[in-house]
Write a structure and sequence with these properties.
This protein is α+β, with helices and mostly antiparallel strands. The chain contains four helices and eight strands, in the order E-H-E-H-E-E-H-E-H-E-E-E. The N and C termini lie far apart (43 Å).
């Protein structure tokens, strides 16, 4: 039986208006500074990134459905630009505590995932944000941050859904064999469960 290995990305889905606004910024980074990767992935806020076998996907979907449904929709405010020196520029999320609560719930639920494929471990962002450009050269970063570090940006979006994406990767070198595709959208429904300790929005 063929072993299919996927990279999964769990993200907050953005409303069309804010997604288009941020996409324009990403295109500016591509066109003005040569940051090709900036325009390769739609704007998103990552909750979890991990590698797993295709055969457990249905199980993952059921678990995500349960966790996400226990949180209620929330307006998320974006406020200004931030950076990881010399390689990444992003849009900051104001009061990201609520997002961190969901990430904590995911960590607790999926502790077993990291033991499935060693030595790969799931990645959970400690500082939730919306990436504009990453993997930048020092020259690209310095040019872009000189301008964008001074710019103001404020906006907001309603977080109603969480989206699971996947792309197949090579089992040996772990390089992507395709672009991301949508697996499923999960609704934040505020369905609190008495038998867990999830913190609601």
């Amino acid at each position: 039986m063929e072993i299919v290995l996927n990279e999964y990305l769990l993200v907050f889905s953005l409303e069309d208006g804010i997604s288009k606004e941020i996409t324009k910024i990403k295109y500016e980074f591509r066109d003005h500074y040569g940051c090709i990767q900036a325009a390769r992935l739609k704007p998103h806020c990552t909750l979890m990134n991990f590698v797993q076998h295709q055969r457990v996907e249905n199980h993952l979907i059921r678990e995500f459905d349960s966790i996400v449904a226990s949180f209620t929709p929330k307006a998320i405010t974006l406020d200004g630009f931030g950076q990881y020196p010399m390689h990444t520029i992003y849009i900051k999320i104001k009061e990201s505590k609520k997002i961190k609560e969901m990430i904590t719930a995911l960590k607790l639920k999926f502790r077993s995932v990291k033991n499935e494929i060693k030595p790969l471990k799931p990645i959970y962002p400690s500082d939730p944000h919306l990436t504009i450009a990453r993997g930048m050269t020092q020259v690209q970063f310095n040019q872009a941050w000189t301008e964008w570090g001074k710019r103001k940006f404020t906006s907001s979006f309603n977080a109603y859904n969480v989206r699971l994406l996947k792309r197949q990767i090579d089992e040996k070198d772990l390089k992507p064999k395709e672009n991301y595709q949508i697996v499923k959208d999960f609704k934040l429904a505020g369905q609190e469960k008495k038998d867990n300790q999830l913190i609601l929005f």
